[in-house]
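Audit log entry. Action: structure prediction of a protein-small molecule complex. Ligand: nicotinamide-adenine-dinucleotide. The ligand was supplied as SMILES and no pocket hint was given, so placement is left entirely to the predictor. Protonation state taken as written. Sequence taken verbatim from the request; no trimming, no tag removal. Recorded inputs:
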Amino acid sequence: MSTFTDNLAFEIAPLLRGLTFDGKKGLIVHRCEAKSVALNLGSVGEGDSIEETVKVWRQKLDEFTSTYRLWPAVIGFDHPDLQFGLGTNYDEAVRGEGVSMVVGLAPSFTRDDVVRDSVAIVTGGAQGFGEGIVRSLVEYGAFVWIADMNEAGAKKLADELNWEACITVAKAVQVNVTSEESVKAMMDRVVAECGGVDLFISNAGVLRSGSVKTMDLKDFQFVTDVDYTGFFICTKFAAPTMALQNLPSRAYYTDIITISSKSGLEGSNKNGAYAGAKFGTIGLTQSFALELVEDNIKVNAVCPGNFLDGPLWSDPEKGLFVQYLAAGKVPGAKSVEDVRRSYESKVPMGRGCTTADVIKAILYIVEQTYETGQAVPVTGGQVMLN
Ligand SMILES: NC(=O)c1ccc[n+]([C@@H]2O[C@H](COP(=O)([O-])OP(=O)(O)OC[C@H]3O[C@@H](n4cnc5c(N)ncnc54)[C@H](O)[C@@H]3O)[C@@H](O)[C@H]2O)c1
């Protein structure tokens, strides 16, 4: 038996989200002709039983709901009453207009619907793999928080996606994944506005290569802080909310996915800080998976091969192709193209990894509810597991 603490609002929100989604993707609302409906769920206070409260809420919600998928949003923590909006999308939910809909059959569920109506957070979502993941998740119907240190870049992407969709499908939130305060503030905002999070993609990462003989400790620690410790901090603050979402039905699966690397599966010459951190994320993945399975939180890693078209490699000024050419890392290479061909030739499937490849792995992980703690390679055959 668990009880509410003094952090009441941030506990109520995920519970409500869990209750309305109830493990079957969506609150289903019967015919209701009023433009908005006020449903008084009663008051709760510190020390009250969570299980008993959820039972009462379930009865009240069941009285006016049946089977249509709606998008819940929890807003208004500044008000004495927590406001809980419902809609077929975020904008409707915030305005509380969705309950005015008269609906027919529940929509069919196809493979592309795996993340539809989910709330996702993508750290490092402003560019590179993260940006591609954000775009795909929005395309497949998720509501995405673009969480990045680069707030301007995140906002630009959110504005573009919202403009294209003509509704709010993404929001920018500034975060530094190496700071507990910053990640907590991000989670508080997401819970305040969306009630919880279904899919947390820990993607933010940095790379500083260098020989173990000469690398500065501060460079080693910089990579470790973002790529390894950042994943710990994100999981620490996402998991309690996800656990509450699961609590009402015990059938509410959520996902934490870290974007590791093929360098998390095999060593990387003169790139030990990065490979060490990426190996480490797989150790965390397995350990967190064991612990969080009781809350129906799956924890997995995706291990992409080199994203040769991404900014890390292809930036014309500081990309790895330019750096490796200048450093003579590829014997005989006379141009950036030579360096690129050399890296492509290491891949049995003959090309670099793309975000389209990575998103397929993400959708598989979310859809698969009989697997956790895995590291899924997406390397064109460059790394093969034993
Ligand atoms: N590029 C590749 O070839 C490749 C291959 C395998 C795995 N990966 C992994 O994929 C992920 C994304 O890589 P990418 O190449 O797209 O990177 P990128 O450098 O293009 O983008 C990284 C994003 O993360 C943000 N970021 C950096 N530090 C942050 C922090 N402390 N807090 C919040 N945001 C922060 C940056 O602002 C940027 O928007 C990384 O984890 C990386 O290790 C990349």
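Audit: result stored. The longest helix spans residues 217-246. The beta strands are 27-29, 65-75, 83-87, 119-123, 143-148, 170-174, 199-202, 254-259, 297-304, 375-378.
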